[in-house]
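In the previous chapter we treated chains in isolation. Here, by contrast, the input contains two separate entities that must be folded as one system, with a combined length of 394 residues.
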Amino acid sequence: MKIPLAFTWGLALILILGIVPPTPAAAAGPPTAGEPFPTIFLPIPKDADEKNYLGLTGSGAFKITQVKAQAVLIEVFSMYCPFCQKDAPGINELFQAIEKDPELKGRIKILGIGAGNSAYEVGVYKKTYNVPFPLIPDERLALHKALGETRTPYFILVRLDQGGTGVVTYSELAGFKGVESFLEILRKTAGI
Amino acid sequence: MTQLKGLIGFLLVAAVVSLGSAGPVFSRSEAFKENIFPVGQLKPTDSKLKVKVGGKAPGFALPSVAGEKVSLSQFLGEKNVVLSFVPAAWTPVCSDQWPGYNIIQGLFEEHNAILLGITVDNIPTLYSWTNQMGRLWFPVLSDFFPHGAVAARYGVLRTDGTSERALFVIDKKGIIRYIDVHDINQRPRLEVLMGELAKLEK
C-alpha cells in the first residue's frame, strides 16, 4: 500500500495534537500573586462526587479555569510530606467551613495536587485523612514542574475571572496557619 | 506499509515523550526546610546483591533510635518483616520516604508486617533526622558500627559507604520473598510493596 509521505506525517501531527494535551514547560518558580495562572491540564476525577464538586463533566483533562467557582485553592502536597500530613485535618476543617458558609459555598473550591504521588498513594492519603475534596495524582511530577517545583505544602489561590482567565491572588509555602486566618486571607485575596 | 510502520513508531515515541519523564526531583517537604543536602543525580545502584528471593534472610541485631536492640530473629514465626534501607539521613529522597510509611501503620498491620528502617548513620544523626518526620511508629536502626555491616551482608552497601535504597520483604519463616534494590534517585512506589505484602501468609 502506497501512502503519500505528506499525508503520513500530516496525519501523525493531527493525531498527536488531538490526543495529547500540550505539556507546559518547567517554571522557574511558583506563580506569584498578580500573575496569570499557568495553563496546566489536570485529569478529570473519576469519582462522580469529586467531578460534581468541581462542576466538570466527561473524562480526559481539564483546566483550572473550567472549575465551576469564583476561586480555586490549590494545595500542592505529598503523601510523604510531614507538614502536609500535619495540616491535613486543618485543611479538611477549612473545606467544611467554606461549605457551611453561604457566602463562600460554591464560590471557593479546593483541590490538591499530589506531587510525585501515584493514584494509589493519593488514595492512601485521602483515606487516611478522610480528605473531602478532590486530590489529583501527579506521579511524574509534570504539574509540580509547571508550578515551579515548589516545596510542600504549597498553597495557590486562583481567582477565576469572567472570560476564562485565572489570576493568582495568593501563593505561599506552608501558608496554612488555622482555619479562621486562612479564610480571611482567601476572602480578601479572592475578593469574595 | 513501511510508511505505516514508521507512522506507528513515530506516534509511540511522541506519546512517550509527551508523558514526560519522572526526574530525580521529588517534592521537598518544608518539614526539613534548607537542611537537606543536595546530593545531585547518583549512580542508580552501586553494589552487588548477596542474597536472593527464596533464600534465608541473614540475621542481625542493631541498635534503634528508641534505645533497644532489634534483631530479625525476634520476629521469626510472629511477623512478616519489611527492611527499608535508605542511603543516608538528611538527603533528598530518603527524607521523603519514611514519612509516607509513617501514616500507613494500618496497612502494614493488615499484612501482619513490621517495618524496620535501616541506615548506616549513627544514632544521634538518626535521632535528629527522624524527629523532623514526627513520631515514627516503626523502629529505626543504625547500621553504623561496624560500618554498614548488615547492608554489606545483604549486598546493598555502596562503594561510598552509604547503602542502596532497598526493600526486602521477609516472611514469618525468615525467607526473603521480595527484593527491590531501587534506583537510589527514585522513591519506590508504595503499591508495589503493598502488592508483595498481600502475597504473604499473615
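Helices of chain A lie at 5-19, 48-54, 82-100, 119-129, 142-146, 179-190. Residues 82-100 of chain A form the longest helix (19 residues). Compare these points with the single-chain example from earlier in the chapter.
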